[in-house]
Amino acid sequence: MTPRLVLASTSPFRQALLERLGLPFETAAPSIDESIHASEKPQQLVQRLSSLKARAVAATHPDSLIIGSDQVACVDDHILGKPGNRENAIAQLQLASGKPVVFHTGLCLLNSGTDTEQVLCESFRVHFRRLSLEQIERYVDREQPFGCAGSFKSEAFGIVLFTRLEGDDPNALIGLPMIRLVDMLSKEGVALP
Predict the structure, then answer these.
(1) Which domains does the chain have, with CATH numbers?
(2) Would you list the DSSP string of 148-181?
């Protein structure tokens, strides 16, 4: 019998991606401290937070496969989180204009029944067009990407901001590396397809 599947996230973007697998799953909101540790690299940060998110919901979801994920965007060695408001979104997009931005997405699959976990970081590079302040403001006002790392939604109108995308799994850019998740689920005995 396959353990129940739990997504340790309330992100509608991650939920929509996971729905593509056609597997029943629940969602749970993890409550963790997402502070960056001193000298922590972005890849280490997202892997640690992904694991913490999965473990935060494990106590209420025994004998489950719990998916934790976290993402940061990096430009010029600056970590960009979720902007939270219009002003910060505009500032983030101004910083990204004309530059490559690397998105690091952490993924953890925790088997709460055996207390074993698989953890990785999937990186994806986005090359931004040179954008004027007016273009950025129009985009931000239309899309309102205040809850998205890097201040854009690639699965929506945000695609107009880019010249090129590089990476193994475009789903990682949206927040859940599906190709790697399928591999992890397979190792736990989940038959796909």
Answers:
(1) 4-187 (3.90.950.10)
(2) STTS--TTTGGGGGEEEEESS-HHHHHT--HHHH
